[in-house]
Specification:
The chain is built from 13 helices and no strands. It has 312 residues and is mainly α.
Length: 312
């Protein structure tokens, strides 16, 4: 009975980073469904800026209520977090939204799977994070399962063949950006006492500043009144949707991602963070879509890989 009572604490204590990564993937799955709809009305750059700005408000309130002051942080770690936010949030997320507009969700997610092995390889080279054979098998099976799911043809995708190669480029930029940002965060989080809440705020602030500069430069090049492109934002319903999705997908999602990078090896954390497509399946069923046996088999295969990553 004592073992059963302590079972939840065992998981939280020993697999804090892994559980945080899976939670982030789940929230990103929900957010991705919403962003795919909202992105049809708002450009990638502006949408990325809005979600980041709203998430910063949530983070600021959380830090104020929890009375957590910024701890002493090594200048190098601080700049690594700033650089991670500029690359991972401003550049990679904007490229992701652009890729979704050009390729559609299926092709974009398939390319984004490359982020996980790329993170593991970078961590192996620069951080000397060696993974066991079982862990590498887990990464392979997880990626194979996710690839099997997202490579299945999905009705209603918004891929545009005329922009195929442009979308490929944006997806690869997003993939490389996410991988580099994850490693930078991992280095900063493991070499300082800063908590993931503050690291998330620092990263979001850096990303938001770069996005603001990007938007100002873009608007200067637009002929006529640039305000016209922001007319869709005048509806209260859209603001509520953006606020809610920013809360779960950006505020909670990135916070959990930072926790996973602090308490789990970078390769494992990023692999589990990449399982969002698996969580999309029950959402699709709930929305009335038909899910094939191939999709279910892919989920089971990925779950086997995830089990190996928990290193029993």
């Amino acid at each position: 009975m004592t073992y059963i009572a302590n079972f939840p604490n065992f998981w939280v204590t020993n697999f804090k980073g892994e559980l945080a990564a899976l939670s982030a993937a789940f929230l990103w799955a929900i957010a991705s469904v919403v962003w795919s709809k909202v992105g049809q009305r708002i450009g990638p750059l502006e949408l990325n800026f809005l979600k980041g700005a709203i998430a910063i408000v949530f983070l600021g309130v959380t830090i104020f209520l929890s009375e957590q002051s910024l701890p002493a942080i090594d200048p190098l770690a601080f700049w690594l977090l700033l650089l991670s936010g500029a690359i991972g949030i401003a550049i990679a997320d904007t490229a992701l939204f652009a890729a979704l507009n050009s390729l559609g969700a299926r092709r974009t997610l398939l390319l984004k799977i490359l982020t996980s092995p790329l993170v593991a390889l970078i961590a192996l080279v620069f951080l000397q994070e060696t993974l066991s054979v079982a862990a590498w098998c887990g990464i392979f099976l997880t990626l194979l399962g996710v690839a099997w799911v997202v490579s299945e043809r999905v009705p209603g995708t918004n891929g545009k063949e005329a922009y195929f190669w442009q979308g490929i480029l944006w997806a690869l930029v997003s993939t490389c950006g996410d991988a580099i940002a994850a490693i930078l965060s991992r280095v900063a989080l493991t070499q300082t006492t800063i908590n993931p809440l503050w690291s998330t705020l620092i990263r979001l602030t850096a990303g938001l500043i770069l996005l603001l500069i990007w938007i100002l430069i873009k608007n200067q090049k637009i002929r006529g009144n640039p305000i016209q492109q922001y007319k869709p934002l005048l509806t209260m319903k859209l603001w509520i949707i953006i606020a809610f999705t920013s809360f779960i997908g950006t505020y909670l999602g990135i916070w959990l991602q930072q926790i996973s990078l602090k308490f789990a090896p970078a390769g494992i954390a990023q692999t589990l963070n990449a399982t969002s497509p698996l969580f999309v399946l029950p959402i699709a069923i709930w929305l009335g879509e038909k899910v094939s046996f191939r999709a279910i088999a892919g989920v089971l295969l990925a779950l086997v890989g995830i089990t190996l990553l928990f290193r029993f």
